[in-house]
Amino acid sequence: MQIWEKLMIGVFALIIIFWFFPGIKATLEKSRQAPKDWGGALIPIGLVVLFILFLVSTL
Fold it and tell me: What is the spatial distance between Cα 15 and Cα 5, in angstroms, rounded to a whole number?
């Protein structure tokens, strides 16, 4: 990949970050004020880990 292509990708990434920054900032502020629900995240993750362990044990 040429150097100018790498620079264009970097510039494009910065433009995207600055374009989405106001929405990201507002979303982070809302998430700080939202009630925490770790059970809703940990239960599916735990089930996936158990399923993977089951698949590995059946080899």
Answer: 15
Q: Which two tokens stand for residue 45?
A: 């993750």
43 contacts: CB under 8 Å, gap ≥ 6: none
The residue to which tokens 């502020």 are assigned: 29
pLDDT in tens, 23-59: 888 888 888 888 888 888 899 999 999 999 999 998 8
Question: CA 53 → CA 12, 40, 41, 43, 48, distances in Å?
Answer: 41, 21, 19, 15, 9
pTM for this predicted structure = 0.45
Structure tokens at 16: 């995207």
